[in-house]
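Appendix C. Worked example: FliI/YscN family ATPase
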Amino acid sequence: MNDLVELAGSVNQAAEKIDKVQLTVCMGRVASVVGTGVEVAGLHPPPPVGHRLLVVSQEPESSRAEIVGASGGRLLASLHGAAQGIAPGQPVRVLDAATLSPDRSWLGRVIDPTGRPMDGLGPLRDGPRARAIRAAPPQAGQRARLGPRLDLGVRALDIFATCRRGQRLGLFAASGVGKSTLMSMLARGADTEVTVICLVGERGRELREFIEDDLGPEGLRRAVVVCATSDASPLMRRDAALAAMTVAEHFRDEGQQVLLLMDSVTRFAMALREIGLAAGEPPTTKGYPPSVFAELPRLLERAGTAAEGAGGGAITGLFTVLVEGDDHDEPVADAVRGILDGHVVLDRAIGEGGRYPAVDVLRSLSRTSPGCLLPEERPILLRARRILALFRDMADLVRLGAYRAGTDPAVDEAVRLAPRIEAVLTQRKDEREGVAEAFRQLAIALEAA
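Step 2, the predicted output written as structure tokens:
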């Protein structure tokens, strides 16, 4: 009986795919090839921007591309892969816009932006609905409000950047500050049902290390990993972020609580920059064309809660931002900080001092934190912030011996209690506690010795 049910399901899926086959084909020709971009002529009527093309090349496999612009009667397209084997005059066929059909069976799998498996575990089963990877966010006036606070499982974040379900936070860090380890802690420890992890421009050798060592079987079991490595084309790196958001939206629309971890928004913006410049857009700040700063909110606004009454699901998004040269005011970081609901700063000096995760709690902020703290937790948090801020201001004087104990009671308290607060913030990657337990440990640390 089970075999018959599976056979019937396969037949239905095959019938749906047959129904989607285009019966009319619009053909054109390659006019020129420059880098990973091609100019196409002869398509009448011309398809809109965002549609995919199929270039019939001399290579064993045809090459896919996407229309990214139009100029002088010719279409400008960006290739999914290399331009090797493509030459002027080769035929071009129009396809539909890019779609994915996510399914719950995708949990525990690693896929590329087109939905093909990267883990060698066999083909993926398509879900019942094909979703365009480009989609509009829920209408602002109909969107549900943020849910209750969320246990992230990381004390530094649960205390100083308390998060709510459906919130979007940015993780701002330079390279080598423990960002991947923090992401693995969130993937394993956050109180959500599904995790979608997006790796944009990741080093190829690090994919298995992250999955097997950092994420582990426990984290992977409830996760879908979408990856485009650094050698992928700009279009594939861009589509990794769009595909991951599409998978997260699928589970959100099923009423699930989803954690979306994206590493990194900066590499997504760099891919957009390459596509935009190749299409002839003028460069602006640091070479980024205007379309980059229009595309960022379109992506980030898709995370969050669903429309009111749509099942109660939510996407809690944590998006990493690579700050080049530790410049937290560079264009992408500045734009993302203004879009998201808070920011978490990872500091290299804190990591070099041996405290991990290396979160600079005084520079980190959750805009929704005041609305989800209990009345007894607010004074604990404010006192801890005051103590850490005063200790930071006086640390050099204390180390040099220029401050004499007993001169200022507030400074004496900060010198005594700051190390105890730092001990609470220090956490191994296999530790996991909720918000209430984190505040309890902080309250104990603040008790007079």
